[in-house]
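dude i think i finally got it to work??
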Amino acid sequence: GVTCQDNTSLDHMNDATILQNLRIRHSRDEIYTYTASVLLAVNPYKDVSSLYTDEQCARYRGKHIGALAPHPYAIADTAYRALVREGKNQGLLISGESGAGKTETAKIVMQFLAYASGAASSHADSIQARVLRTQPILESFGNAVTMRNSNSSRFGKYNRVFFDNGGALVDAGITTYLLESSRVVVHSDKERTYHCFYEMLRGLDEKRLQAFGLERNRKYRLLTSDGGKPLDGFEERDAANFSRLCESFGSMGLDEASIGEMFQVLAGLIHLGDLEQGGDDEPERSDDDGEPVQVNEQAIEWAAKLLGMDADELRSRMTKRKVAVPGRTSFHEVPRTTTNFRHALQSFIKAMYKRLFDHTVSGINECFRELRPKGVAKGSEELWSHIGILDIYGFENLQRNSFEQLCINLANERLQQYFVENVLRAEQDLYKREGLPWTGLPLPDAEPVFSAIGQVFKTLDEYSQNLMKNVGNPTDKTFCQRVVDEAGKDHERKEILKPLKMGGKAAVGRKSVAGLAMNDGFLIKHYAGQVQYNTSGWLDKNNDRLLPECEGLICDSSCGLVKSLGDTESLSGRAPSFKSISKKYSQDLQALLETLSTCNLHYIRCFKPNGEQVPDKFQGSLVLDQIVQCGTIELVRIMHDGYPNRVPFEEITTRFRSLLPERFQRYGMRTFIEALMLAYEVPKGEWALGMSRLFLKAGQLRALEGMRQEGAMPPADKLSEIVRGIVRKRWVRSAHAVMLCNFLPKFAMQIYTKRAAKALSKAAVLTARLATPLEAAKQRVQARRLAARRRFIGAGTVVRLTQAWWKEAREQRASRLAKAVRLAALLHARTGPWVATARLHAAEVEKRREAERKCEEERRRLELERTRQAEEEQRFREEEQRKAEEEARRREEEQRREEEARLRREAQERRLEEERQAWMKQQQEKEEEMRREAAREREEFRRKEEEQRRAIEEERRQMEEERKAWEEEKKNAEVERQRRAAILEAASPAKGRSFKSGQAGSGRRSDAGDSTTRASASDADGFDMDSASHIDIVTQEAMQEQVRRLQQEMERKHEEIRQQMLLLQERNALLERQIHQERSPLQQQRSPLQQQQQPPQHQQQEQKKQQHRQQQRVSPAEEAPRPSPRAPRLSPRAPSQDLPLPSAETWRQLPLPVDFRASEQPDRYVIFAELPGLSAEA
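look at this
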């Protein structure tokens, strides 16, 4: 049947027609379909590589959506052109269920972006190649085989590709979200953990596997489900992916050592998985059995070796835990239960792998930074525009849904709501803003779901934190019960989060339909359906902090890569004991949504055609569920009833200006666009003019683009009719404008009159209602005014009286002041001489008093001086007396200390004597042990020397036999040669005589025959001589080669003997040094006592003797006698005060022919030794 490339172009818009359109296109391998600007992709599960060639990239470059068949290249090209044109960030959201092809679609989009911008420079080519080559690394470390997909992404990633202002590729980066770390240790049957483990086992050679302690076909607990078998059928793919993984690591700039270190860590994690003793078929023991946890010693040795840890320390940290002693700072270790051991081990493995994954992602981002130009500073990505590609896990409803599935479904819920708000609701708002008639459609609201999950995370953080602090008794069951109880109290959340339903009678154990108890989980109603979650283990999964003892193992590792994965902050004690994963994930998700809000978004929806993932099979019910869940039906309805294509007036006028004659250019944009639609007979219902844009139904813009490319022009009569219609519309509009202008004043006057009448009626009503209150108010105001007037008059009278009284008071004060002045002048005139005489007398009296005061002060000063001198003399006498008493006490104290020192010296001498005797006894025992050891070594050396001598004699005997055999062969060859020569000499004369007795005519031939015979004889003789000489040369070379080989063997054995001799000398020096170090403390303890006991004169004599000895001391080379030429001399090192020379007895015990000779000077001797293979200079 006929299909539509855009679902909005369907004649009958319903679920069945959309599904049928997708079914027919899938059967034709047309796997892509538009829904307006949203691309729907149906996974074909087969090779359709012809759709993704460079020729296809070239076709879609620069084309609008709808101009060609639906394709991810068209979406990517639209985003790229919008980025270059507007300079705004772009985002591509690729969503769908697991197995729908999101990862492959993301790679296809990356391929086109690299093609569209990678040809600008070699720098862009390098980034393009590296972007494409890093994808296998993320797939190997972040993808796994699940029940629904053989290459399922178990993490979310947001790839960002940065472009400069010219559209050239300049940088790239990757941000990851929520790796499913629990899959490393636990996965369901018929599933696998991450690809990298299997690829390593399949791709490494046997030598590397043996170095890691691995076997290619062995069953490892970490790589198989509980009691399950390894999945078959992936061997060839794993081997090919391993080669691709190594090439990708090389493109990152990693050397062989770094790549090998990463595989070494993965191998160590595999061995950690086998740490618990016993196979998978062994029944699990309970925690109450009282038996310690049994570990696999071979696995723990290999794990410790590969991870750079101590095996005993690793065993202790895994099987024991430290408990603080109350009231003390110490700890004591107690064995872990089986459950605690498994929890600690699994947490350790999950943390190691998660950190290794984050380290790998950081390395990928760092390799992108290495390609930046030298002048580009860090943080420059904020100045560039980017295209982000979000490839995040799809909605999941598995057999067992845990904490990871809730986080995954929360992300899908938020992204679906983001799609509803930014696409569907924005579409309806656009129609309203542009003035188009629109009734609107009901849209889903996911806020209650967000609220319910947010409350679950909040309660989970509280319980997890209490578990780490040992507050209360938090368990997974009590957590689940509280979540359900809190949701039941809220009328909105109780419709979203519900308890599990009962699945049978109570006697069965109160199990739900899925085999869970009532308090083991709950149900949440998502946009894609209800999902049952199992809350077992959520309190542990929510904590991102590793146990301190396990963290210490990582930080103390001798492996550089493992040590770099450690968190030193957690060991310092400053970091909190709880780090919430749910909180961090919510923050990352919010940051992702904020990043997407800064971008122009483009959507690609991926669908699974069937659950078996086989080609050419389309299950309508499965596809329809996905279409409904992702909001495609609402989008199709809006776009079908609305206008999926919209173009601004400026753009449509610029692009289609050439389709109409020049006379249309003088019209306005709205008139021009209207004329364009009429000229090409676009149906009236297929387009509409908004305030600033032209809105078109599906397919109309593609038709206009086709006519523009073909250069089609409308007929002249049609244009004339359009012009007449434009003129007629203008006249009608003008008449309407005049009528409107005439009507507006009248209408305004009517409005004004109505408003004035209404206001007047309101005023009359108010006046009637307020008349009586206003009259009463007026009377009250009049009364208040009269009272105020009376108060004012009274106040004026008081002021006038006060002013009169104040004037009279001032006049009286002035008269009294005049009388006082006259009296003062009279007194001054009469008492002036008396005052002068009194002042002179007072001055004389003051002088006499001053002189008397000075005499009294001088007398007091002299008296004080005499008193002070007397006190100083008394104090001096007391000081002299005190000093005499102190001197007497000091002498007594010195005598007492001397007596005590004498007693201590005597006690110390006795103790030193006892220690010396004990030390001498120990030295005798050590010397006896050294002699026995030397005897054993000497015997061993003699035995080896005897064996070597026998071997040398055996080789000499063989050489002698070979030489005799060679001489015998040579003699036989000489006899044979002589015999042949005799035979030839005997045969030559007879033949000559026979030729001479012939005919005369044959003389010439006889001479020729004679010469030939002589030549033959000489040739035979020469052949024999050459053969013999050749045999002699070969035999002589063989003998010389044998002699050289024996000489080399002798030299090697002599070198071994010399090395053994040097080792014996070093060992003897070490023993002597140990004896000296043991002897030196006693000498240092005795020396202070001897110095105290010796008088000063004796010490001076000893010093002079010591200086005399040092002046007369000469080097050992001068003292030693000249050695004989055949006896190499071994000169010992010069004696020093710190290291004494070996004793003569020690040298005589060496297993060598050693000659000990005493020297003329004390403490010196010379040793002569004859060693085979050593020259006199050695």
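The chain has a mean pLDDT of 77.
im so relieved honestly
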